[in-house]
Amino acid sequence: VVMALATMQTEGALVLAGAVNPELADALKVHVDAELNTSLRMSRRDPTEEHAHFGDVLSRHCRYDLKLRIEAEPVRATLRQLFAGLSVLSGTLQALLGSDAELDELACMVSEPGARRQPVHPDTPAEGAEHDNMVVCTGFVALQDISVAMGPTVVWRGTHTPAAHTAWEAEGASQLERSEACVATLTKGDI
């Protein structure tokens, strides 16, 4: 936990290999695929339902931010495995966010073949963070192996601080020239 915490505080990103076992990742992927098909069908039938099923994404073509229901067993099983006992993830998040942290959003980013790369953007604004303590963490669990050919998420080290967000607002993407890009090629089950 100590090393993971130090990495998150300095780099703003961390990979925990094998955080979810492959069989559970497969079960969650089957669930996500079924939910995506159902949600797309429901949204096409009634466009006013779209926001109930999907979050906003910057590049919509073949990309979905599918909202997940915590009551669904594959979702619950994955959360149980991620946060069981004194896991590295659980300990790190508690140290970063406090023991009273809340789950704010539970969703799955789905990018299908043909999806365009999203423009570079901060996932979460650092508004209200007058200090360097994190107030939000975003996690991605790989439900399949993620290769460079798939257009994985890119994370820029050290851009998680309020100072980096201020620079982003002033300079835009040019401020990233001072940071190292990390391409999130992951193995199924990594977070």
Task: Tell me what you see in this structure.
With 191 residues, the chain is of the alpha+beta class. The chain is built from six helices and five strands, in the order αααββααββαβ. It has helices at 2-11, 22-45, 50-53, 73-83, 88-97, 162-171, and strands spanning 54-55, 63-67, 107-111, 154-156, 181-183. The strands form two sheets. It has a three-stranded antiparallel β-sheet. A hairpin with a 7-residue loop joins strand 1 (54-55) and strand 2. Helix 1 (2-11) packs across helix 5 and helix 2 (22-45) crosses helix 4. It is globular. The mean pLDDT is 90.
Structure summary:
By secondary structure, the protein is α+β, with helices and mostly antiparallel strands. The protein has helices at 2-11, 22-45, 50-53, 73-83, 88-97, 162-171; strands at residues 54-55, 63-67, 107-111, 154-156, 181-183.
Q: Any key phrases for this structure?
A:
alpha+beta; 3-stranded antiparallel β-sheet; 6 helices
SSE blueprint and pairings:
Layout: H1 2-11, H2 22-45, H3 50-53, E1 54-55, E2 63-67, H4 73-83, H5 88-97, E3 107-111, E4 154-156, H6 162-171, E5 181-183
Antiparallel strand pairs: 1-2, 2-3, 4-5
How many individual helices?
6
What is the percent of helical residues? 25-40%
Count every beta strand, where a strand is a DSSP E run of 2 or more residues: 5
Q: How would you write the strand order of the largest sheet? A: 1-2-3
Shape: globular
Head-to-tail CA distance between termini: 15 Å
